[in-house]
Design a protein that fits this description.
heterotrimer, A mainly alpha (360), B mainly alpha (562), C mainly alpha (134), A: 360 residues, mainly alpha, Four Helix Bundle (Hemerythrin (Met), subunit A), 13 helices, 78% helix, 0% strand, C: 134 residues, 2 domains, 4 helices, 59% helix, flat
Amino acid sequence: MSHDHAADHGHDHPSFLAHHFDDPEQQFDAGKLGIWIFLVTEVLFFSGMFCAYALYRSRNPEVFTFASTFLNTKLGAFNTGVLLFSSLTMAWGVRCAQLRQRGGLVLCLALTLICASIFLGVKAVEYTHKWDMGLLPAHFYLSQYAQTIEHHDWAPFKELVGQAHMTWLTKLCILPGLITIGFAAWLFSTLKSKERRKIEVAGSMLLTALAFFGGIGIGRVFQAAEEAAAAHSTDHGDKHAATDADHKHDAASADHATAASADKTMLVSTDSQTKIGAPSIEQIDQKGGAGLFFSIYYCMTGVHAVHILGGMVVLTWLLVRASKDVFHEQYFGPVDYVGLYWHLVDLIWIYLFPLLYLIR
Amino acid sequence: MSGSATVQAQNASDNYLFNTKGFLSWALTLDHKRIGMMYLVGVMGAFLLGGILALILRAELADPENWFLTNKQYNQVFTLHGAVMVFLFIIPSVPAALGNFLVPVMLGAKDVAFPRLNLGSFYLWVIGAIFFLVALLSTGLDTGWTFYTPYSTQTSGPVVAATLGVFILGFSSIFTGLNFIVTINTMRPPGMTWFRMPLFLWATYSTSIIQVLATPVLGITVLLLAAERVIGIGIFDPKFNGDPVTFQHFFWFYSHPAVYIMILPGMGIISELMSVHSHKGIFGYRFIAYSSVAIALFGFLVWGHHMFTSGMANVTVIVFSALTFSVSIPSAIKVFNWLATMYKGTVQLNTPMCYALNFIFLFTIGGLTGLWLGTLSTDRPLHDTYFVVAHFHYVMMGGTMVAFLGGVFHWWPKMTGKMFNDFWGNISCLVVFIGFNMTFLPQFVMGSRGMPRRYATYDPQFTVFHEWSTYGAFTLGLGLFIALGVLIHSLLRGKQAPDNPWGGATLEWQCSSPPPYYNFHTAPEVNDPYNYKPLTYRGEKGWEYVRPKPSTVPQQPDQVQV
Amino acid sequence: MAHSATSHNETSHGAPSHNAKGHHGFSHPTPVWQLIAVFLALIVLTIATVAQASMDLGNVELIASLVIATIKATLVILFFMHMIHDKPLNAIIFLSSFIFVALFLGFTLMDADAYRDIIELKTILPDPPANPMQ
């Protein structure tokens, strides 16, 4: 292979090959190395938050045990499954791109997008539920809740929707709702034009947007089940606490049991707490620190969610290109690179799930 | 090869500067050389701004009382000076400006691996710079460039905007580093093995490793700081059981390696300059190459030496102090090898070489004074005094900035196709040398006598040192303006530069000055980058590469065995 | 790691020269059964990690959940991210990031642990809240 630069702009250069590369393999290798290095930066980016996590957990393990019980394990596990499935569809998509299966690739990318959207919908339920309970980052955590919410409400927004007592969840749904309407309109216009590829893309995007609300629905169902279970098991939780206290276990495990019951009773009513004699959240949290757990929780899952959003943007770009059938065995790099990124985001969640939700 | 006049005439229409015209042809260019030139203009603008701020500070410090700045204004000016110099000038200076121009050309590649990403990182730099400057100039940041908590979580300054600026600039730096690693790994032409790469590329490669590994941690650090201010996460706030020292760990995990982002490319430039202007092969090529990588990796082990007085645990302090000394080994290897390169070489004292010698002198002082700061017992009294200020200016300014200027002069004929006035270049180097030492040597003295840094006023006993330092600073400024004048004069009135004015054997001297759009008209011949035997001096036409015939290879003096 | 031996065999094309080879030189489509098997294994491991969390394992619990997470991560990296077919260099680069993470966490935690006993958990809550639930 000659390295004669002047002759390189000839007929030998296929359109998918950038001018400064010699052959498709060099282009692919360069991109692959680039994306791996980018993943390295992502790992180190997240490492800062893992460091904060390790630091504060090693200092106050009992606070983490206590605060973790406020996270809904079922929702976390469900979301883990959703992300794992999206990883499967993504990896399958790479395979389709390599085999030049246009339809398969479009389907896989659409499924990946839908999973991402469901994930975010569930996350929205989890977040808003905690905001409603006052489980906010350290500065606003619980005690300062009443003042800060007023202070942080977005006034123009409030006027827009009137003085209706919207929950956080409703507010969070406004933007996705608008996006859904937009995609529906787009789909409608493409249906008229009868261009199959555009219909595919628009349809996938509409489904993706709807999946967000699907995620919210699923999240609500899980949440309701949890609340119902809590209503039944306050009694049980109380007993649990009593037996645990007999254990010569330290405060941590006692905290855990009471916290669990406190969590659940909080959702039902504040009266029942006093009735069963369980300490209130404020009393348990007297020694403080749980706010820090939620700070770290919001930072880690929030930055992760931003990565999901970013991934959705590039997935959409891929979907548009895939519908135009540009990928084949010589040029599947972009699908592969986005796939690697997507798997890394999944990978981080694989660690976040046990570290945040499963502290016992 | 490409030395003849006819080829030059052809090149005139095909060089990268003029092959396309118009603002958009520059603003949207994917050519690494143009991007490098845009960076060069940008970082020089930042340097000018930072330099003017430095002169304002020095002018204020000529008098022990508040002369024309209030304490608050003084804080804002030194913050702006430090932040502009570090984030907008030193970090992108050599890697982004010179590196962008040189890495593909030296490597024999047509472009960097990801030209669009390259342009993107330039615009990230621009956006970050605008963000940063608007934030800082509007209400004034007064945290120092380090954003230490808990002060940065309480001050009324525009911390959030500034940290977002840093975040964006950080990603610009990451993408540049990523691009260079991939370029060097995958774009090498046949024959360009790892150990035929010029040492500047080794230095850039090592720098890129640090950029990729350390900068993301800065990203998350400033993001957490911004989150602290916006949603009150309390991670760094002792009021909520947060730990301010953690911020320093996070910050210095990036910012100590970042010191090597700043100095390593400078060292790479010096390796080139020493060899070319001594007309002698580099001494200890592999040692210099490996020491670059070693500095990059050791740089990650020593960040704690910035925190000896921050209340770290005793054992950590001792470990970090011990590790700190390990960095001096690869640095010393480099200095000794440069000196050995000059030994029995044909040293030409032209402007780039003068700057290189300047670098060795100043960097050695800076490096050696660092040992006192790395030693626990001496660091306790010297911490946060002018001793530290003088130390890092010797390394950062006397090292990186001087190397950057040397590199700009060295590659100026290649970048612009114009020669500069060597005499006035040498004068500028001399004035910079005198001014620099006059500025910062007194600071060592007053620092060791206890003059703390970051104060607008001081005890009158330090007046004489501060006055000398101020005179020196203005002399230094004069020297830099002379250098700028030499460069501008060269642009306007400079003679046409030959392809190889210095007699360099690396690949960039094989293409025309300035290079064509695709860098090489004919495939470059990859040889030992420090073998000067095939080069013959042709007067006005510079040095010409003559394919050596085995029988007529002239013996150079240094090759003769005694 | 176990996979490095495999990847050596698989990446014969990974030489720096970019000679034009066969048209299928660098794509390694993963078989469908492999994708599904990995996915099922990941789901099983997720169930396992939830299950072990509900058991009272004490101190082992953190280690157990991290071990399971690491097994899951390894599966994802090897098969979904195709590291098994990838060049050794890419694997080295990616895995080396964990060394630097370890360095970062290690030093920072070493410091934190050393002065852990001289700081106390501070009591927050300056004044008792009225009723945060309203």
